[in-house]
Structure formats: C-alpha cells, structure tokens
Amino acid sequence: MKAEVEMGNVVNKTPSRLWNAMHRYNPDAEQTVAVSGEGSWFTDENGKKYLDGVSGLWCLNLGYGRQEIVDAAAEQMKKLSYFPLTMSHQPAIDLADKISDLLGANYQTFFSNSGSEANETAFKVVRQYHHQTGNPGKYKFISRYRGYHGSTLGALSATAQANRRVKYDPGVPGFLHVYPPYSYRSIFGGEAEESDLKAAQMLEEMINWEGEETVAAFIMEPFISGGGVIVPSTKYIQRVTDICKKHNVLLIMDEVVSGYGRTGKMFGFMHAEGVQPDIVTMAKGLTSGYLPLGATAVKSEIYDAFTKEGKDNHLRHVSTYGGHPAACAVALKNIEIIERENIVERVRNLGKKKLGKLHQLIGHENVGEVRQIGFLLGLEMVADKRSKIPLNELKMAGIIGKCKQEGLIIGKNGDTVPGQNNVLIVAPPLTSTEDDLDFIVETLSTVIRSL
Ligand code: PMP
C-alpha cells in the first residue's frame, strides 16, 4: 500500500486489500496504519503518535505494550501451544475459578473467542435450560433498542439498531426489543429516574403481553455502550432484575464493554446493589485485548440442568479456539494486574477528578448531554439545546477529524435517529496517566469550543 501524509493524516493512494478497515462511508478516505503502541498511545507508520481515547474498540483496559502480559502469553505458548476444551488445561480451570470469585457467586464458565460468541453461547444455554427444566415453550429473547450485542446473526438479532441490521434482516426468529432507559429523549418525561423506571415497566408489560411462558431471557448491557453511552439510574437495573425473577425470565448481563473496571466497578452490574445476573457475558477487557477471548459465566443453579443424567443433557456447543491456553494465561495476568494496581478504584477517582471535567462542556450550545460512568463517556451532540436535533454527520466528522489531527482518537456512535451517530465517545485505557487524561479533556474541549 502506498501512503502519503496530508495534514498529519495518512491518505491511501492505492487502497489496500484489507476489507475490515475500509472506511464505512468513503472507500477513498484515509486509513491509519499503526505500527506500535505503549501505554495509551500508538504510533502510525509515519511516526505520528496518537492518544487512543477509545481503547481500540474499548478493550485495551491496561493499554498497549505491557511486558508482563506478553511474557505470560509467550510462556504459556512454549509450555502448551494449544489444547481443546473438549478436555481441559490449567489456565482455563484457574480462569473459570477466578471469574466466579470476581462475580461474587458460584458461576460455571464456557469460553469462546469474542463478545458475539459469548452472547451466542448464552442464548443456546438459555433455550436448552428452559427445555430441561420443564419450560420448552420459553424461547423468546428481549433486548433494548439502542443495545449492541454483537455481529453474528443471533447476537445481531439482539442488537436493536436499525442501521446495523437493515441489509441483513430478517434476523433470527424470537428476538424482541423494548424501549431503553434513555431519559434525555424519553417519551415518558419527568425526572431521569422516574422515566427509567417507566422504561423498566415496559419490560414487564411486554413479558405479560407475549405470555411469560414464551419468554426465555432478557439481555442488557448495564450501560448501553455502542448505542450512545446510556447511563440509567441503578434503580432501573434493580427493577428489571426483579421483573425477570418474577417471570422466570433469565437475566443475561452483557459485560463485554463494562467488565473489568471500565465503569469504576469490576463489573457494571455491581453498581446496582443486590443484582446478581443469571448469566454474565464478557470479552474485551477480560484480556485487555492482548489476545481474543470470550466468556459466558452461568450461575450454578442453571448449570445444574446440564449435568443431570441423560445422554442429551449436556450443552451441544464446541469452540475450537475458545479458551485457548495463551488467551487464558493472558486473562489471568490481566486480572492480576487490575487487582494489584487497584485499577477499579483508580477509574472511580480519576474518572471523576479528570475526565469528569468534560461535564463543563454542557455549557456549549451543541452539547445536549454529557453521560459518564467511570472511564466511559458519551457526549450527545445536538444542533441546539432546545430542538435536540442530532448534530449533523459532517460536523461530527469534523470534530473527530480535528481531534485526530491534534493526536487524539475519539469515536462516535448512537444511532439516535437510524444511521445518525451524534454521540461522541471517550473511553481511554484505564491506566492512562493524569497527563493523558488532561490531554483528552483539553483537546476535546478546545475542538468543541471552536465549533
Ligand atoms: N456486546 C457488547 C456490549 C459490545 O459492545 C460488543 C462489541 N463492541 C459485543 C458484544 C461484541 O463483541 P465482539 O466484537 O468481540 O464480538
């Protein structure tokens, strides 16, 4: 690939043959080719450095280039380069134990390679569980509009964002969607908490109307991430948990983004006292992105339905690479560092002290709402505060492009109106230095104020 530097950006002159990185709107747009990374920063092929303000795809919880993690992978690879989990190996056994400890109850874990697969596994576990506990009619899954649960067909069917689905629909039968706790544009009005609780009530209405004997599970991110960083009242999380219990609807908590410290708790659901999900899915921060790994942690009471005598009671699910020994060794080291360096507490403190300064931007006419939980922030951008019309794509792209020129990578998503991503995303590595965090706040504030 030939590349040329133009205003600090790399511009493809001959598009590469790599499909993934093809720009979504304009195939001729610049692509950044990274060559190295350290801490919160990566360097492109021209030597320009960028602060990765979105942690890759919100997965680099410990940032780039941790030698300890690299060593853990290499040592494990030398010892046992691969082994299938149709049998077992020690790193996977230890990691399953550790996950159960961290979740604060007895969970059994099935390993895969990604967040999408972790959710697919959860869906199969749920349907089979109901079959084996006398409720074969319970097959429907409910998720929220704006939620994101992955790119494979089942996970995409739970992902209720029109523009991600329109050319791939129809999805898998049996996936339904309910109104999210999105108080900024709520149809309910009232204070945020009141509006969130009404959104919770819609879940119960839906279960009743569908017939609880047909509803298998409710899947939610504690804080919707890919759908515009939506931070509900913790009472919402408690309320939907109670509703699920009441109707024998299993609660799948998608902690793919929010797990491993991102929100200032080890897992996002832990912000809501008394909540213990039936199933917790995770990936990303589980290994800080050093190697691919997904995990589906299932409460022991549910797992029991798969261990009863009978030839068809086991889970019919195999993953060739899921729980790869090197990935499990990396996850164990990653968790060890998160605990040793008190990363979760750090996120709580610096999230408030440093990134929290971004709340000051609420004074700007184009900033409709600043939503934050730990090191996960969404700035909902609008044409003006009164109309709340989403800021147009060109201006959004302008903000992101200007930040990039200044050496700061931020993201956008939201799908507030299908296809319109008017929420700016900031989610830096949890190990970002105080100077890094100041750089993010100053750069983004300057760019927005110059709008
Ligand atoms: N769940 C959530 C909440 C996610 O944000 C994502 C990915 N962004 C996924 C699931 C899917 O994970 P993966 O891309 O690893 O398949």
Helix content: 25-40%
Strand order of the largest sheet: 6-12-11-10-9-7-8
Number of helices: 13
N-to-C CA distance: 35 Å
Question: Which structural category fits the helices and strands?
Answer: alpha/beta
What can you see in these coordinates?
This protein has 451 residues and is of the alpha/beta class. It folds into two domains: 141 residues, Aspartate Aminotransferase, domain 1 (Alpha-Beta Complex), CATH 3.90.1150.10; 274 residues, Type I PLP-dependent aspartate aminotransferase-like (Major domain) (Aspartate Aminotransferase, domain 2, 3-Layer(aba) Sandwich), CATH 3.40.640.10. Helices cover 33% and strands 18% of the residues. It contains 13 helices and 17 strands. The strands form four sheets. It has a seven-stranded mixed sheet with strand order 6-12-11-10-9-7-8, sandwiched between helices. Strands 3-4-5-15 form a four-stranded mixed sheet. Strands 13-14-17-16 form a four-stranded antiparallel sheet, with no helix packed on it. Helix 2 packs antiparallel against helix 10, helix 3 packs parallel to helix 10 and helix 7 packs parallel to helix 8. The longest helix is centred in the middle third of the chain and has 19 residues. The radius of gyration is 22 Å and the shape is globular. 48% of the residues are buried. The N terminus is likely disordered. The site of 4'-deoxy-4'-aminopyridoxal-5'-phosphate has 16 residues, from helix 4.
